[in-house]
Protein backbone atom coordinates (compact mmCIF):
# COMPACT_ATOMS: atom_id res chain seq x y z
CA UNK A 1 0.00 0.00 0.00
CA UNK A 2 1.28 3.43 -0.95
CA UNK A 3 2.08 5.78 1.92
CA UNK A 4 -0.30 8.75 2.24
CA UNK A 5 1.44 12.02 1.38
CA UNK A 6 2.06 14.32 4.33
CA UNK A 7 1.55 18.09 4.25
CA UNK A 8 2.52 20.69 6.86
CA UNK A 9 0.43 23.87 6.69
CA UNK A 10 2.10 26.94 8.24
CA UNK A 11 -0.64 29.53 8.70
CA UNK A 12 -1.91 31.40 11.75
CA UNK A 13 -5.55 31.22 10.68
CA UNK A 14 -7.44 28.05 11.63
CA UNK A 15 -10.08 28.83 9.00
CA UNK A 16 -7.45 28.54 6.25
CA UNK A 17 -6.44 25.09 7.50
CA UNK A 18 -10.10 24.03 7.72
CA UNK A 19 -10.65 25.30 4.19
CA UNK A 20 -7.70 23.28 2.89
CA UNK A 21 -9.06 20.18 4.63
CA UNK A 22 -12.46 20.74 3.01
CA UNK A 23 -10.98 21.28 -0.46
CA UNK A 24 -9.07 18.00 -0.25
CA UNK A 25 -12.11 16.16 1.12
CA UNK A 26 -14.45 17.39 -1.63
CA UNK A 27 -11.79 16.57 -4.24
CA UNK A 28 -11.48 13.04 -2.80
CA UNK A 29 -7.79 13.54 -2.07
CA UNK A 30 -6.33 12.02 1.07
CA UNK A 31 -3.34 13.66 2.75
CA UNK A 32 -1.97 13.59 6.29
CA UNK A 33 -2.33 17.24 7.29
CA UNK A 34 -0.71 19.04 10.20
CA UNK A 35 -1.02 22.71 11.18
CA UNK A 36 1.43 25.05 12.88
CA UNK A 37 1.00 28.79 13.30
CA UNK A 38 4.46 30.39 13.22
CA UNK A 39 8.09 29.85 12.34
CA UNK A 40 9.22 28.59 15.74
CA UNK A 41 6.55 25.89 15.77
CA UNK A 42 7.44 24.93 12.21
CA UNK A 43 11.15 24.55 12.95
CA UNK A 44 10.45 22.44 16.05
CA UNK A 45 8.27 20.11 13.98
CA UNK A 46 10.68 19.96 11.04
CA UNK A 47 13.62 19.03 13.26
CA UNK A 48 11.72 15.82 14.04
CA UNK A 49 9.67 15.12 10.91
CA UNK A 50 9.89 15.32 7.13
CA UNK A 51 6.86 16.26 5.02
CA UNK A 52 6.16 15.68 1.35
CA UNK A 53 4.97 19.28 1.04
CA UNK A 54 4.87 22.50 3.07
CA UNK A 55 2.11 25.01 2.35
CA UNK A 56 2.91 28.33 4.01
CA UNK A 57 1.69 31.92 4.24
CA UNK A 58 3.90 34.98 3.74
CA UNK A 59 2.71 36.91 6.81
CA UNK A 60 3.17 34.87 9.97
CA UNK A 61 3.31 36.14 13.57
CA UNK A 62 6.81 36.69 14.99
CA UNK A 63 8.32 35.15 11.85
CA UNK A 64 10.73 36.29 9.15
CA UNK A 65 9.38 34.19 6.28
CA UNK A 66 12.48 34.69 4.15
CA UNK A 67 14.75 33.38 6.90
CA UNK A 68 12.29 30.59 7.68
CA UNK A 69 12.52 29.24 4.13
CA UNK A 70 16.31 29.38 4.26
CA UNK A 71 16.27 27.47 7.55
CA UNK A 72 13.80 24.88 6.27
CA UNK A 73 15.92 24.22 3.19
CA UNK A 74 19.07 23.98 5.31
CA UNK A 75 17.34 21.27 7.37
CA UNK A 76 15.80 19.51 4.35
CA UNK A 77 17.39 20.68 1.05
CA UNK A 78 14.86 18.77 -1.08
CA UNK A 79 11.82 20.08 0.78
CA UNK A 80 8.93 21.09 -1.50
CA UNK A 81 7.38 24.44 -0.49
CA UNK A 82 4.25 26.10 -1.87
CA UNK A 83 3.54 29.69 -0.82
CA UNK A 84 -0.19 30.30 -0.31
CA UNK A 85 -0.94 33.91 0.55
CA UNK A 86 -3.02 37.04 0.13
CA UNK A 87 0.18 39.07 -0.29
CA UNK A 88 0.92 40.53 -3.70
CA UNK A 89 2.07 37.90 -6.18
CA UNK A 90 3.60 40.67 -8.26
CA UNK A 91 5.88 41.67 -5.40
CA UNK A 92 6.62 38.43 -3.59
CA UNK A 93 6.43 35.49 -5.99
CA UNK A 94 9.78 35.91 -7.75
CA UNK A 95 11.59 36.51 -4.46
CA UNK A 96 10.24 33.32 -2.89
CA UNK A 97 10.86 31.28 -6.03
CA UNK A 98 14.47 32.47 -6.03
CA UNK A 99 14.77 31.42 -2.39
CA UNK A 100 13.73 27.88 -3.29
CA UNK A 101 9.93 27.74 -3.05
CA UNK A 102 8.38 25.70 -5.86
CA UNK A 103 5.24 27.73 -6.30
CA UNK A 104 3.33 30.85 -5.26
CA UNK A 105 -0.46 30.80 -5.14
CA UNK A 106 -2.86 33.57 -4.24
CA UNK A 107 -5.60 32.74 -1.72
CA UNK A 108 -7.99 34.37 -4.17
CA UNK A 109 -7.49 31.56 -6.70
CA UNK A 110 -10.12 28.87 -7.25
CA UNK A 111 -10.20 25.52 -5.47
CA UNK A 112 -9.29 23.87 -8.75
CA UNK A 113 -6.20 26.05 -9.14
CA UNK A 114 -5.19 25.23 -5.56
CA UNK A 115 -5.46 21.50 -6.19
CA UNK A 116 -3.49 21.84 -9.42
CA UNK A 117 -0.74 23.77 -7.62
CA UNK A 118 -0.49 21.18 -4.83
CA UNK A 119 -0.33 18.23 -7.22
CA UNK A 120 2.15 19.98 -9.48
CA UNK A 121 4.56 20.74 -6.64
CA UNK A 122 4.13 17.26 -5.13
CA UNK A 123 5.15 15.83 -8.51
CA UNK A 124 8.42 17.76 -8.28
CA UNK A 125 7.56 20.52 -10.75
CA UNK A 126 7.18 24.26 -10.22
CA UNK A 127 3.73 25.80 -10.19
CA UNK A 128 3.63 29.10 -12.07
CA UNK A 129 0.49 31.16 -12.47
CA UNK A 130 -0.40 32.74 -15.83
CA UNK A 131 0.82 36.05 -14.44
CA UNK A 132 4.19 34.59 -13.42
CA UNK A 133 4.70 32.85 -16.78
CA UNK A 134 4.02 36.13 -18.59
CA UNK A 135 6.22 38.13 -16.20
CA UNK A 136 9.16 35.72 -16.40
CA UNK A 137 8.85 35.54 -20.20
CA UNK A 138 8.99 39.34 -20.39
CA UNK A 139 12.03 39.37 -18.11
CA UNK A 140 13.78 36.86 -20.35
CA UNK A 141 12.96 38.79 -23.52
CA UNK A 142 13.34 42.42 -22.49
CA UNK A 143 14.98 42.35 -19.06
CA UNK A 144 13.55 43.36 -15.70
CA UNK A 145 10.01 44.66 -15.66
CA UNK A 146 11.02 47.89 -13.96
CA UNK A 147 8.61 47.58 -11.03
CA UNK A 148 9.73 50.12 -8.43
CA UNK A 149 10.32 47.59 -5.62
CA UNK A 150 12.50 45.39 -7.83
CA UNK A 151 15.19 48.04 -7.38
CA UNK A 152 15.74 46.70 -3.86
CA UNK A 153 18.10 43.87 -3.02
CA UNK A 154 16.69 40.88 -1.15
CA UNK A 155 18.11 42.20 2.14
CA UNK A 156 16.79 45.72 1.52
CA UNK A 157 13.35 44.34 0.73
CA UNK A 158 13.38 42.26 3.91
CA UNK A 159 14.36 45.24 6.07
CA UNK A 160 11.74 47.40 4.35
CA UNK A 161 9.03 44.93 5.36
CA UNK A 162 9.98 45.38 9.02
CA UNK A 163 9.55 49.14 8.70
CA UNK A 164 6.17 48.59 7.03
CA UNK A 165 5.09 46.43 9.99
CA UNK A 166 5.75 49.34 12.32
CA UNK A 167 9.14 48.35 13.72
CA UNK A 168 11.57 51.15 14.55
CA UNK A 169 15.24 51.08 13.56
CA UNK A 170 16.32 49.74 16.96
CA UNK A 171 13.79 46.90 16.77
CA UNK A 172 14.91 46.03 13.23
CA UNK A 173 18.51 46.02 14.47
CA UNK A 174 17.58 43.52 17.19
CA UNK A 175 15.54 41.32 14.85
CA UNK A 176 18.21 41.12 12.14
CA UNK A 177 21.24 41.12 14.46
CA UNK A 178 22.66 44.03 12.46
CA UNK A 179 24.27 47.12 13.99
CA UNK A 180 22.00 50.15 14.25
CA UNK A 181 24.30 52.12 11.92
CA UNK A 182 23.95 49.35 9.32
CA UNK A 183 20.16 49.57 9.57
CA UNK A 184 20.47 53.33 9.12
CA UNK A 185 22.48 52.77 5.94
CA UNK A 186 19.90 50.29 4.63
CA UNK A 187 17.10 52.75 5.44
CA UNK A 188 18.84 55.50 3.49
CA UNK A 189 19.37 53.21 0.49
CA UNK A 190 15.74 52.05 0.56
CA UNK A 191 14.41 55.59 0.67
CA UNK A 192 16.82 56.70 -2.05
CA UNK A 193 15.99 53.84 -4.43
CA UNK A 194 12.25 54.24 -3.94
CA UNK A 195 12.26 58.02 -4.03
CA UNK A 196 10.57 58.51 -0.65
CA UNK A 197 11.56 60.82 2.20
CA UNK A 198 10.06 59.13 5.25
CA UNK A 199 8.17 56.11 6.58
CA UNK A 200 4.77 57.63 5.81
CA UNK A 201 5.68 58.02 2.13
CA UNK A 202 7.08 54.48 2.14
CA UNK A 203 3.83 53.15 3.61
CA UNK A 204 1.78 55.00 1.01
CA UNK A 205 3.93 53.64 -1.82
CA UNK A 206 3.59 50.15 -0.41
CA UNK A 207 -0.19 50.56 -0.10
CA UNK A 208 -0.49 51.62 -3.74
CA UNK A 209 1.47 48.56 -4.86
CA UNK A 210 -0.20 46.17 -2.36
CA UNK A 211 3.02 45.40 -0.54
CA UNK A 212 2.51 44.28 3.07
What's the layout of helices and strands?
Elements: E1 6-10, H1 14-26, E2 32-36, H2 39-46, E3 53-56, H3 65-75, E4 81-85, H4 89-99, E5 103-106, H5 111-122, H6 130-142, H7 154-164, H8 169-176, H9 180-194, H10 199-208
Parallel strand pairs: 1-2, 1-3, 3-4, 4-5
Helix pairs in contact: 7-9, 8-9
The CATH topology of the largest domain is: Rossmann fold
Summarize model confidence as the mean pLDDT.
88
CATH architect. name of the largest domain: 3-Layer(aba) Sandwich
Share of β-strand residues: 5-15%
Spatial shape: globular
Question: CATH H level of the largest domain: which superfamily?
Answer: Response regulator
Helix share of residues?
40-55%
Number of helices: 10
> What are the segments in which pLDDT stays under 50 over at least 5 consecutive residues?
none
For the record, the count of structural domains works out to 2
SS-based structural class?
alpha/beta
| Number of E-state strands | 5
Cα(first) to Cα(last) distance is: 44 Å
What is the level 1 CATH name of the largest domain?
Alpha Beta
Describe the structure.
The chain has 2 domains: 6-140, Response regulator (Rossmann fold), CATH 3.40.50; 148-208, Winged helix-like DNA-binding domain superfamily/Winged helix DNA-binding domain (Arc Repressor Mutant, subunit A), CATH 1.10.10. The chain has a 5-stranded parallel sheet, sandwiched between helices. The chain has 10 helices and 5 strands; from the N terminus they run βαβαβαβαβαααααα. It has helices at residues 14-26, 39-46, 65-75, 89-99, 111-122, 130-142, 154-164, 169-176, 180-194, 199-208, and strands at residues 6-10, 32-36, 53-56, 81-85, 103-106. It starts with 5 loop residues before the first strand and ends with a helix. Strand 3 (53-56), helix 3 and strand 4 (81-85) form a beta-alpha-beta unit. The protein is globular, with a radius of gyration of 18 Å. The chain has 212 residues and is of the alpha/beta class. The mean pLDDT is 88.
Amino acid sequence: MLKTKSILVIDDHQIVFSGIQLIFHTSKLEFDLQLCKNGDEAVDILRKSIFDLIIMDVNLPDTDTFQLINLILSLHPEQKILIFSMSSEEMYAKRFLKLGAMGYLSKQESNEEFIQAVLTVLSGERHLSKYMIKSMTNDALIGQSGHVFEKLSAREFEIMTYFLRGHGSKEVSNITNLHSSTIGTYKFKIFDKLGVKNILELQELARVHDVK
